[in-house]
From TrEMBL:
It comes from the Bacteria. This is DUF2975 domain-containing protein. Pfam families: DUF2975 (PF11188). InterPro entries: DUF2975 (IPR021354). The keyword Membrane applies. The keyword Transmembrane helix applies. Keywords: Membrane, Transmembrane, Transmembrane helix.
Amino acid sequence: MPAPVPTPVPRSLVVVLRTMLVLAATGSLVVLAVILPLLWIDLESASRGVAVSLIVVLALGVVSLQVIGVCIWRLLTLVLRGRIFSREAFRSVDVITGAMACGGVLLVAFGVILSGGTTAPGLVLLVGGVALLAFAAALTVNVARRLLAQAVDRDAQARRLEDELSEVI
């Protein structure tokens, strides 16, 4: 395991980000425990298939966001330990990419569910646009992962060169 590298990220910034993650996680639990059951009650006039589909898609969307939050928390831990430029970060970044892509698929499913009813076409198009943004975010994270891999490889190469140089000296 490579030695920790000091990080220029202030600890206070990590604390603020973690506070935001805790607030988001709390809100997501409220959505799962309170909002979705209330929505289920409100959907009593809708067909059973539409109601179940809508609740499942929304619940899975919230779970996808929770997974992203957990992975960001893990990445912040690596930042604090000075190990963000390590292979350990790849797993979290890959899971974030997958969860974002899953969110895009869920948004498309949500749009399809909405399009079957009396929902305004503009709202369905808006949901489709947000789905495109979710896919774009997943691709952006994938690009960041490739840059992370490049940085890790260069860091390993620099360590090898330092080791060789110290042997010569």
